[in-house]
Amino acid sequence: MKTLVVSSEPVCFLALGLASASEQRIKRSWSHGAVVPGAATHGVVVPGAVSHGVVVPGAVSHGAVIPGAVSHGVVVPGAVSHGAVVPGAVSHGASIVGPVNGGAALAGPVNGGAHLAGPVNGGAAITGPVNGGAHLTGPVNGGAHLTGPVNGGAALSGPVNGGAYLTAPVNGGAHLTAPVNGGAHLTAPVNGAAYLTAPAYGGAHLTAPAYGGAYLTAPTYGGALLG
């Protein structure tokens, strides 16, 4: 009996060692070439950077937090759903092609070369700046808020639709070519050398001041307000 008790000790230590090793692997950041096909769901926290070559095709849903940077080569095609928070930077070459839905927050900056192609839907917030070379091509829909500045070289080409708010300044060299549709509000200032060429349609409000060298060339249609 004694020999059985003694022989079980190394087995216990081995099991503990394996558990500890797997725990360490889980704690590491997702890196080059990693694929995470499942949904990141309620209450999930991913504190490490999601880096080069990572694909996250599943939905990132309510209560999820991704505080690390989403960096070059990353693709997040799934929806970012209500209550999700992405406070890290979305950096050059990264793509978020899924919709950003009600209650979700994208608080980190969208930097040069990054693409946000999915729609920003009612109640969602993009509060990080959109910086040089970045593209925001998804529509901003009813109740959504885009409060981050659009800075030099960035492009905002998605439409701003009924009830949405675009309160961020459009700064030097940036392009805002998206139409502003019925009931939407565009109250952001347009600063030196920026371009605001988007048409404003019925019931929309385009009240942004235009500063030194800026261009405000948007046509105004049925019932829209410019100025």
Give start-end ranges of low-pLDDT stretches.
Answer: 1-8, 11-16, 18-27
Inertia-based shape: globular
Helix-strand string = HEEEEEEEEEEEEEEEE
- H/I helix tally: 1
3D structure, described in words:
The protein has one helix spanning 2-27; strands spanning 75-76, 85-86, 95-96, 105-106, 115-116, 125-126, 135-136, 145-146, 155-156, 165-166, 175-176, 185-186, 195-196, 205-206, 215-216, 225-226. The protein has 227 residues and is an alpha/beta fold. The strands form two sheets. The protein has an eight-stranded parallel β-sheet with strand order 1-3-5-7-9-11-13-15, with no helix packed on it. An eight-stranded parallel β-sheet has the order 2-4-6-8-10-12-14-16, with no helix packed on it. The radius of gyration is 23 Å and the shape is globular. Mean pLDDT is 83; it is low at 1-8, 11-16 and 18-27.
Quick summary:
The protein is α/β, with parallel strands linked by helices and 227 residues long.
Question: Features of this protein?
Answer:
alpha/beta, 1 helix, globular, 11% helix, eight-stranded parallel beta sheet, 227 residues, single chain
Describe the SSE topology:
Layout: H1 2-27, E1 75-76, E2 85-86, E3 95-96, E4 105-106, E5 115-116, E6 125-126, E7 135-136, E8 145-146, E9 155-156, E10 165-166, E11 175-176, E12 185-186, E13 195-196, E14 205-206, E15 215-216, E16 225-226
Parallel strand pairs: 1-3, 2-4, 3-5, 4-6, 5-7, 6-8, 7-9, 8-10, 9-11, 10-12, 11-13, 12-14, 13-15, 14-16
